[in-house]
Each structure stands twice: as structure tokens, then as C-alpha cells.
Design a protein that fits this description.
four-stranded mixed sheet; four-stranded antiparallel sheet; 8 strands; globular
């Protein structure tokens, strides 16, 4: 911790933030001596050679399968195909964003309390999601190709009000386990929605501009710091060979410091930082992210 303490002092943080750091660093030390449940990391061997761009190919193959089906009832292949369409034509959203989503054909029925797809303006409105308290309502404009594919899917779901209704009872939505099962069947046993989010940020985002990265983070419902630390190529599980390199988000108002024991793993401090810093402990590491007052 000595190295991080030096950096915190060098940054000339306000005294209240220095005190907060001391409090969190003490909590970090305590966690090192107490066993606690850690999140299950994504393992490289589970992903294999799968690339995010492979989703489009999977979508087209699944489309050929459903086009050859003569059954009037919906099959699991339709669910796999729609998931492939969503993840190939949009930035990867969380499972919760989709399974809690209703279909709206009338502006008078819109709500600020649920997730819904508004067909009157081709937008996906996300109100209920993991980080909704931090980022509020998200509005995502859907491409016309995806709208057409969703409408095609609804012809098989007996005009259910849910984007992903249960196969045998279309009055109820599928659950997260069912969604994950369809995802694995579509792309491979180790590929989950969380995997797809990690692969997207790791493989696609590095080629984007700073403005595009900010937009992607907003659509996906997380911060630039989360994008770089949790999902991106700086994830030590996905890319252990480069996890110790300096993080450069290309976005101002951002500070990222990650360490394990007394070793600094990643650090980026912008020249123009204003607002606040967030302290979190993730997978045995204290992460300081956000912004601070000069």
C-alpha cells in the first residue's frame, strides 16, 4: 500500500478523500485476512477462439435454419437467432435489460418504471438495470434491420407483450438462466452475455475514438473506468500479458488506480479532473475511479 499512498499524496487530493482512502485501504487489508466470496472470472479456455465478430456469422446461419422450418410454433432456434441479432447489431447489453423488456406499440402506454421497446420511434428504453441509480434512464435507437427482425420474431410469439416471452407461456418473460442457455446454444457452451460484453470491450472498443468509447459506455450502462478495468483488455484474466500496462482512456475527467498488495497495476490521471472519486474493492483489489477536485 505504500506505493499507492505516495500517489494519493502526489495527486494532492482533498483531505476528505485522503481520509476516505485510509478507510478503504484499511478495509482492503482486512479482506486479505478474511475469506470471502469472489466473483467467478471469465476463463480464456471457456472462450476458445471465439471472436465478437463471429456473432454475425452465427446470426446468418441461424436465420437459414429458421427459414427452413415449417412448424408454425416457435422453436428455441428463434430465440438463439434473435439474441444473435441483438448482440451483432447493438452494443452488448445485460441480460436484465432484455428479459424485463416489454413491447410498446402506442406512445400513450410508455412508462418510466419498466424497460420497453417503443415501435413508434424504434427506441429501446431501459429503466430497470444493474446501475440505474447511477446512470438513470437509457434511450437506445435501434437500427431498422433489428426492428424488422424483432417484428418477425413477434409473429412467432403470438403477439406477446414481452420481447422474450416463455416458449410455452407467452404471457410471462423468460428468466436469466433461460436467456443464458439460448446464448450458449447460439455461440458455444462458454459464451454468456457477460462474456460477450467483455469480448466487445476487449476486441471492438480499442479501435474506437474517445467520443465513441464514451457513447458505448453509456449504452452498455457503465462507466469508462468499468470499461477499462472490468470488461476490457486490461482484465487480468482475459489478457494477463498486458494487464500491467498503463490505462489510457482518452477521456478527460478520469482517474484510475488499481493495485494488489503494494504493487500498482494500472494508473491514469487526466490533466483536467473535476467532480468525484469512487472507491471499490473488486476481486481482492482496491480500485479508485472517477474524478476529483484540483
Amino acid at each position: 500500500l505504500a506505493g499507492l499512498t505516495t500517489i494519493v499524496k502526489t495527486c494532492q487530493l482533498p483531505i476528505e478523500l485522503q481520509n476516505k482512502y485510509k478507510e478503504l485501504s484499511s478495509e482492503y487489508r482486512n479482506k486479505q485476512s478474511v475469506e470471502y466470496k469472489k466473483p467467478n472470472p471469465i476463463k480464456v479456455e471457456q472462450i476458445g477462439n471465439f471472436k465478437y465478430d463471429d456473432i454475425s456469422q452465427a446470426r446468418d446461419k441461424l436465420r437459414c435454419v429458421i427459414d427452413s422450418e415449417n412448424d408454425s410454433n416457435i422453436s428455441s432456434t428463434w430465440y438463439q437467432w434473435l439474441i444473435a441479432s441483438l448482440y451483432s447489431r447493438l452494443q452488448p447489453l445485460r441480460t436484465q435489460d432484455y428479459i424485463n423488456c416489454k413491447l410498446m406499440f402506442d406512445n400513450d402506454k410508455v412508462s418510466n418504471e419498466i424497460n420497453y421497446l417503443n415501435f413508434t420511434n424504434n427506441t429501446l428504453i431501459i429503466n430497470e438495470y444493474k446501475t440505474d441509480e447511477a446512470y438513470g434512464q437509457r434511450t437506445i435507437t435501434l437500427p431498422i434491420e433489428l426492428i424488422d427482425e424483432i417484428k418477425m420474431f413477434t409473429t412467432k410469439t403470438k403477439q406477446s407483450i414481452w420481447l422474450f416471452p416463455q416458449m410455452k407461456n407467452t404471457t410471462k418473460p423468460i428468466n436469466k438462466d433461460q436467456f443464458a442457455t439460448y446464448c450458449k446454444k447460439a455461440f458455444g457452451n462458454g459464451i454468456t452475455p457477460t462474456t460477450l460484453r467483455s469480448l466487445y470491450v476487449s476486441q471492438i472498443v480499442p479501435n474506437k475514438s474517445a467520443e465513441e468509447r464514451q457513447h458505448i459506455a453509456e449504452v452498455m450502462g457503465h462507466s469508462i473506468a468499468t470499461q477499462n478495468i472490468t470488461y476490457s483488455q486490461y482484465n487480468s484474466v482475459l489478457h494477463p500479458e498486458i494487464c500491467s500496462k498503463v490505462v489510457n482512456t482518452g477521456v478527460k475527467n478520469d482517474i484510475i488506480i488499481q493495485f494488489s498488495q503494494d504493487t500498482i497495476k494500472c494508473i491514469h490521471i487526466s490533466q483536467d479532473v473535476t467532480e468525484k472519486i469512487q472507491f471499490t474493492i473488486t476481486d481482492g483489489k482496491l480500485i479508485i475511479s472517477g474524478t476529483y477536485q484540483n
